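Lab notebook, bench 4. Still working through the backlog of constructs that have no structural model yet. Next entry is a single chain of 208 residues. Request: give me the structure tokens for it.
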Amino acid sequence: MQSETNLKYPSVKIYLDLPIPDEDVASLENSQWCETNQKRFVHAAEIYGYGAYLMPKIVFAPPFTLVKSETTCLACRQTTPVVAVEAAGYVPLSSKGHDLALAIALFAQGELDNALPHPVFLTNVREYPPEFLKLIRMSSFLFRKYSLEEDNDDYFANACTHCKAPIDDFTLYYEQDGPLARCNPCPIRRSETKLQYSLPIVAECQFA
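Model written out:
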């Protein structure tokens, strides 16, 4: 463990992607269970020793903006409001195991500050810090985990306010006429709100 005085982001939550065997939980005592994400996590200051339980992550830099938009629900064909989280920048961490733990430790020391600003939307997010998710749900109570893929790998997404059908992130960010697609010459951004959350987010997800 590093001294927290040497870290800029010691309290950032890093979610473990692979389960810790029951016989090892006691020895890896710094991990905690998160009911919201149904995963164990450790703080960045405690990441050493947990590389074997991590898959590639993306680090997103604050400030974060909640963008309100709208789309047509494919289930009921009515227009429904949706929200999106936009980060000020990002750094992919594509390594695995101990190398990934080391990369996360470097970011916790402040390496993230060297990332070039490049706003991106967080998409197909498997894990959000509960404190951050609460800020999103203050604007959209239907924003939660849904099964939207064939492998039943849930991720956080919007839902139609009329019929409650989940809204696939692909239709919002990746289709040519998606309301928040980068390739859409006329994106729909009804409003923008800066979220009061100053820590980076480390997540298993994609970006657009």
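Notes after review: The radius of gyration is 18 Å. The chain has a mean pLDDT of 90. Flag for follow-up if needed.
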